[in-house]
Every structure is written in C-alpha cells, then in structure tokens.
Predict the 3D structure of the following.
Amino acid sequence: MRYEGIRMCDGKNHLEAGNGHGSFILILRYAFHHGNGDTPWESVVFASQDSVAYNRCLKFSWPRFSFPRHADWWKIKQKEIFEVKIFMTGGTGFVGNALAEALVEKGFSVTILTRHASAQKKGHEGTFVVEGDPRKRGKWQELLLDQDVVINLAGASIFQRWNDRQKQIIRESRVLTTQQIVKILSLNPEKKIDLINASAVGYYGYHGDEIIDEGVPSGTDFLASVCREWEAVALNAKTPGSRVVLCRFGVVLGRQGGALQKLLPLFQWGLGARLGTGKQWFSWIHERDLVRIIIYLLENRDREGPVNCTSPEPVRNEDLTRCLGKALKRPIVMPPVPGFVLRIALGGFSMTLLKGQRVIPKALKDDGFFFKYPELAGALQDIVSG
C-alpha cells in the first residue's frame, strides 16, 4: 500500500496530483461517461500527505483539487479507505506515547505491544493494545505480518546508576527485542515491511569538540557497543522492497519523561548546576520535533540507514544549565557538580553526562527537514510553559 500520486485518464483528459507517502490511502472506483456509453471500470490510488485535509475529500468537496473542465464525465461509484498499519514496541513510554497520539491523529492504525496490557490505561482512539514480552517469542509476532511498518522504540532507561545487572537490562531490552522482530520480518521478505528502529547518538562514543554526522564510525565504550549491536541486528530486516531506518536519538526533552523529568525539580528548587567543567557537548531534540522526524521517516521512503535525530544546534552543558535556569526564572547559584561525585553516584552513566557528543542531523538537513525547535532556549521555554 505504498503509492505515489494520482492519475485519472480517459485517453483525452487526465488529472494528476503530487506524490508522497501518506496517512490515508483512498481507492476510488470511477467511470467516464461519454455520449456513446461508459468506459470500463478503472481504479486509481492516491496516497495523501495530509490526512486531515483529505479526510474532507470523503465528502467529495475535494478542496485540494481542480477537476478537468468536463467534470461531469467523472462519476465516483465506490469508495474504500485503507489505513497504513503501524506496529509499535515501546509505545507506552515517554516518546512512544506522544508518537502514538500523533500517528492516530494523522489517520494511521496503530498496534502497541506492552508487557502489561491489563494495567495499561485506555489508549488513544484508533490504537490497539496487545500484551506480550517483546524480548521473547509469542503470539504477538503473528501480528507483525499484517503490518506495513514496525516502529521499534523498546529499551530500558539509561538515566540511572549503572551496575553489571543494569547494563545487562539496557542491552537485552534493546537487542533481544529487535532480534524477535527481525526474526519474523526476515523469514517473510515477501511482506515488504519497513522497520524504523531506535538507536542513540551514544553509538559514536566520545569525540570532544569534533562535529559528528552519520558517517562517523562507532565508539568503544559501553553505550557505543550496545548501539552498534542493536543496529547490526536491525539491519538484518532489510529485504528487497523494504527498508531499515536507524534513528539515532539525542537526549529527548519533554515534560513527561526523559532527562528533564529529573532535572526540572532540581532547578525549580534552585539546586541546578553545571556538571563537571560544563564544556562537554549536549546533543538534544525536542519531543515534538522527534515525533515529527519519525513520521517524516515513515512517509519518506527514500531515506534509510542511520539518521541523527537531534537538533541542528547542540550546546554545551553550561549553556543547558543557563537556559534551563532562565526558562524557569531561577538563578544558578550552586557550584558545579564535581566529576568524581557523579562517578560515585551514577557509576558508568556519569561518563555520558561528563563527556557527551557534538552531533548534527546531516541527513535530515540534506533532506530539507524543518525543525520547529532548533534552538535550546526556545525549546525549553515551550516545554516549561506547556
């Protein structure tokens, strides 16, 4: 169900509209009426980029089109609507919840896999919740073959102290889940199901002030090794006619989860401070821009492989500290948090906070993607006032 544009033609007159891979797919059956009778039945497929606008087309008002001059030749006889089917893991988490809501609003049919369906709150209208452990084989895998796209966001949070057990959970929650998805997709290549797989800018390791794009090789630390293995497993889902997109997330900023959920209370109480020297780079993305990026990658089938999902304007930790204090109208009076304190408190995770990466979204910029929140100050102001 992936088509580009529309073309209606009776041999003399035709109607064409732009191309795109969109939310609603309308199949219209029509006949041309001439003085000498009807031509045989025809079918035309249209892939809409704007499900809201084209939903109005169902009433045949057609606000986005101009019919040929002899519009009475066209008689719509039958209308069918097919929704693009999305299967999501991690759909109940911080990013997944926002993405599921946006997908439903755009007209996609969304199935969410969760380990605790009975405890899950009622999903967004248009979503279907199925229970299963994504790390293990199960009946949930049977549903994959009825999908158009799988979006894999599963993965335990890294924002906590790392010990050996926690590192195992971080790795297995990503790699084992992806293995179970890929196993089904690779055994059924005729289905041509796309995989949009989460990853992280931790893939690159630590590079100081070096500007990092998608062409930089992987690092050697723990997070880099996890991301490298995670992506290698995902790429096994690539078959002729399907694609794999590797979304390397920066730190996602939003009020409902992620880093800011832990930082906001500290800054609101006047306890905010820069970490270590404050010179380390911080590659980030507004939650809403991330959702828009994933939907863009879903609809733009020309893009595959690694994609940095970060703002085009990474900042240093001292800039993050100043901007967050300003957004909350709280002065920064606390002294910097020494690196050794973070290492004692957070273990290996402290290095992610004390080093960081200077990542830019080259692939998205090359595509002309528009960021609503390219600068940190505006992004934080939107989040704290929301």
Residues 85-385 form a domain with the Rossmann fold fold (CATH 3.40.50.720).
